[in-house]
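Researcher: I'd like a candidate sequence for this fold, 235 residues long. If you have to choose between options at a position, lean toward the conservative one.
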């Protein structure tokens, strides 16, 4: 499936775990929220760099199902940051031809945030330059569970026999079924784990880990990851 892009050695879909905002702040004796605020600036830089490099899709892990376990002040701060960022950035993304969408369980979010998410998806639906996917209250196990429920409902309705369930049937029910699967996965911040991100979708992705904290990540670090992807694709 990735034959076209491998010919040019450009990943079609990059998925990123943006880690290290807190440690970036701590290393400067600053409160964690400053790290998250800087993290938003990195998101802006990286989205721009990906559009310039003709990456077809970028998926960012903004808030995991596990992030609710953080202190409540930090959770509200991150969610407020989503609200202000969406209000500020959607017009810019739209102007740049970016289609925005969200994956994850929205039910736990405030009405205000859900409304902004719906509006930003509706406003950018027709854009084709790049897909920007924000994984918010997302977990890979949740995603697979939801897909399983959808298939179980089809079986109960008599549309499908259990023996007819194939990986293709599952893949069609999983988030981002309509996009090429990520061919490059990047995690910043030094940890070497997938941490319940896109478990199904990353089956064939090249995994790239870097020590740099997310606020320090930028076009040069992105190019290093793409170059590592290209050299592995060549081999
Ligand atoms: C990772 O650093 C940070 C998060 C998971 C929080 C949310 C992400 C942002 C604020 C970036 C902005 C995203 C959007 C889409 C607006 P960490 O807190 O896990 O850092 P640590 O491991 O050093 O503590």
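Model: Candidate sequence:
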């Amino acid at each position: 499936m990735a034959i076209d892009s491998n010919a040019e050695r450009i990943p079609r879909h990059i998925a990123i775990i943006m880690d290290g905002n807190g440690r970036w702040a701590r290393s400067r004796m600053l409160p964690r929220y400053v790290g998250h605020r800087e993290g938003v600036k990195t998101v802006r830089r990286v989205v721009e760099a990906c559009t310039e490099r003709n990456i077809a899709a970028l998926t960012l892990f903004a808030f995991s199902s596990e992030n609710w376990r953080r202190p409540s002040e930090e959770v509200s701060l991150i969610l407020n940051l989503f609200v202000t960022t969406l209000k500020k950035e959607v017009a810019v993304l739209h102007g740049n031809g970016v289609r925005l969408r969200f994956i994850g369980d929205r039910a736990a979010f405030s009405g205000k945030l859900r409304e902004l998410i719906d509006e930003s998806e509706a406003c950018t639906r027709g854009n084709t330059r790049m897909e920007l996917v924000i994984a918010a209250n997302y977990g890979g196990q949740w995603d697979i569970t939801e897909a399983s429920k959808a298939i179980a409902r089809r079986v109960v309705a008599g549309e499908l026999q259990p023996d007819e369930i194939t990986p293709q049937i599952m893949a069609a029910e999983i988030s981002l079924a309509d996009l090429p699967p990520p061919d490059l996965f990047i995690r910043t911040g030094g940890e070497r784990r997938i941490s319940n991100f896109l478990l199904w979708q990353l089956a064939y992705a090249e995994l790239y880990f870097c020590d740099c904290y997310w606020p320090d990540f930028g076009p040069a670090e992105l190019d290093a990851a793409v170059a590592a992807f290209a050299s592995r694709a060549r081999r």
